[in-house]
Amino acid sequence: MHRTDKARTGGRQADEHLMEDSEAVNLAADWSDISQGLRKDLGHQLHSQWIKPIQLGALNRETGALDLYLPTEFSANWVRDRFHDRLQLAWSIARSEVRKVNIVVHPGRRQLPDLRLDDGRRPANDGASAIALAAGAMGDANFTSSVGLDPSLTFAAFVTGEANILACNAAQRMAALEQPQFSPLYLKAATGQGKTHLLHAIGHAYLQTHPRARIFYCSAERFMVEFVQALKSSQTIEFKARLRSFDLLLVDDIQFIIGKASAQEELLYTIDALLAEGKRLVFAADRAPQALDGVEPRLLSRLSMGLVADIQPADIELRKKILVSKLTRFAPLNVPEDVVDFLARTITRNIRELVGGLNKLIAYAQLTGQDVSLQLAEEQLTDILSANRRRITIDEIQRTVCQFYRIDRSEMSSKRRARAVVRPRQVAMYLSKVLTPRSYPEIGRKFGGRDHSTVIHAVRLIEDLRQRDADMDGDVRSLLRQLES
């Protein structure tokens, strides 16, 4: 073979390896998302026992078949029997090219026999202790009311602020002993803002006030999977009877029921049946009912007939409160106030990322024996910070403040000393220091070439006024929300 031919062959092989590596990375990312969804749906114990051990195999582009590996024949059979349709649906939603999911034993593992003890118990090699719980979760006759509820997601652990107080109060009312004035409750929030936390909290609180209650918590995806399974096995009557026997129905991510006509119809009938009996229903989604495209009008009307409670993105004050509440778990570890301020100011997309960033920072500090510091946070959270960082400029701050106080933009640089001009200018200097990485001298130059000491005075003055003057604190909060949205 000529040297040029060898070079072309080597180049093609290198390209093929790069494509394979890229494909593996993309599959792993999709599996991470699917696995997290199943963890939320099934609960920590079931997920750890059966889903977490799954390893990704290769995707056959020609057949659309994806192999999922488990370590033993027993675990492969168990997952195949109970979760195959759910995994198939999740993968088909995540990647259209996946048309078939094969759940098999890892080819590099020894296939252990289904060992049975003398007393007829399940195989010891696959963690038989979880089988009773799993059967309770998936079986029709033994559905356990508390399955799927995360014990850490309670009202006591939910930090409130202006952004979520309405939704939290409505959720507590839904779980109270007395009958709520509204049903269903519809929680609307973007990803990671706390709607799933409130769903779990409602379930826990309702069980405290109604110890013998039957609760069904699931995602819309799980609802569809179980409904399809019931259709395939000709058990729709049993499915409907079981579903309508619950006292509290909690359905998360209702937006994923879009376009599923048969599942929508069954959910509609279930809502009508439960409401007629005075049962309680709570739904959560990332958009308002009217924004659910592909949902029939009758179902939209049921979803919005109660109370639609909107959870707004957390402002900087609420983000600080959440971080401080989480820090109690790590006492007596010292996390400086400037680190808390930095995280609350820069990780703004959602609460889940904010808490994840704090956990990652503290874990790294503990594992390496370093002190938690602002420098360590900037070094170790680069991925999270870059994903969240929206560059707010001093020009943008000045423009927003001038619109808020209804003054001309030129007053930010003018020499006028009238109170109606000076105070907005000081607020803009304060926000420039809080929301941008600019130094005091740099900020001063943007405000008509003022000295850095003038900026320092303005920042300290507004900080002090926020503590003493409720109107000033309200103005700053409102401006922060506008600039960070």
Automatic annotation (TrEMBL):
<keyword id="KW-0238">DNA-binding</keyword>
<dbReference type="InterPro" id="IPR010921">
    <property type="entry name" value="Trp_repressor/repl_initiator"/>
</dbReference>
<dbReference type="InterPro" id="IPR024633">
    <property type="entry name" value="DnaA_N_dom"/>
</dbReference>
<dbReference type="InterPro" id="IPR018312">
    <property type="entry name" value="Chromosome_initiator_DnaA_CS"/>
</dbReference>
<keyword id="KW-0446">Lipid-binding</keyword>
<keyword id="KW-0963">Cytoplasm</keyword>
<dbReference type="Pfam" id="PF11638">
    <property type="entry name" value="DnaA_N"/>
</dbReference>
<dbReference type="InterPro" id="IPR020591">
    <property type="entry name" value="Chromosome_initiator_DnaA-like"/>
</dbReference>
<dbReference type="InterPro" id="IPR013317">
    <property type="entry name" value="DnaA_dom"/>
</dbReference>
<protein>
    <recommendedName>
        <fullName>Chromosomal replication initiator protein DnaA</fullName>
    </recommendedName>
</protein>
<dbReference type="InterPro" id="IPR003593">
    <property type="entry name" value="AAA+_ATPase"/>
</dbReference>
<feature type="binding site">
    <location>
        <position position="196"/>
    </location>
    <ligand>
        <name>ATP</name>
    </ligand>
</feature>
<feature type="binding site">
    <location>
        <position position="192"/>
    </location>
    <ligand>
        <name>ATP</name>
    </ligand>
</feature>
<keyword id="KW-0547">Nucleotide-binding</keyword>
<dbReference type="InterPro" id="IPR013159">
    <property type="entry name" value="DnaA_C"/>
</dbReference>
<feature type="binding site">
    <location>
        <position position="194"/>
    </location>
    <ligand>
        <name>ATP</name>
    </ligand>
</feature>
<dbReference type="Pfam" id="PF08299">
    <property type="entry name" value="Bac_DnaA_C"/>
</dbReference>
<feature type="region of interest" description="Domain I, interacts with DnaA modulators">
    <location>
        <begin position="1"/>
        <end position="123"/>
    </location>
</feature>
<feature type="domain" description="AAA+ ATPase">
    <location>
        <begin position="181"/>
        <end position="328"/>
    </location>
</feature>
<dbReference type="InterPro" id="IPR001957">
    <property type="entry name" value="Chromosome_initiator_DnaA"/>
</dbReference>
<comment type="function">
    <text>Plays an essential role in the initiation and regulation of chromosomal replication. ATP-DnaA binds to the origin of replication (oriC) to initiate formation of the DNA replication initiation complex once per cell cycle. Binds the DnaA box (a 9 base pair repeat at the origin) and separates the double-stranded (ds)DNA. Forms a right-handed helical filament on oriC DNA; dsDNA binds to the exterior of the filament while single-stranded (ss)DNA is stabiized in the filament's interior.</text>
</comment>
<feature type="region of interest" description="Domain IV, binds dsDNA">
    <location>
        <begin position="366"/>
        <end position="485"/>
    </location>
</feature>
<dbReference type="Pfam" id="PF00308">
    <property type="entry name" value="Bac_DnaA"/>
</dbReference>
<keyword id="KW-0067">ATP-binding</keyword>
<feature type="domain" description="Chromosomal replication initiator DnaA C-terminal">
    <location>
        <begin position="393"/>
        <end position="462"/>
    </location>
</feature>
<comment type="similarity">
    <text>Belongs to the DnaA family.</text>
</comment>
<keyword id="KW-0235">DNA replication</keyword>
<dbReference type="InterPro" id="IPR038454">
    <property type="entry name" value="DnaA_N_sf"/>
</dbReference>
<comment type="subunit">
    <text>Oligomerizes as a right-handed, spiral filament on DNA at oriC.</text>
</comment>
<dbReference type="InterPro" id="IPR027417">
    <property type="entry name" value="P-loop_NTPase"/>
</dbReference>
<feature type="binding site">
    <location>
        <position position="195"/>
    </location>
    <ligand>
        <name>ATP</name>
    </ligand>
</feature>
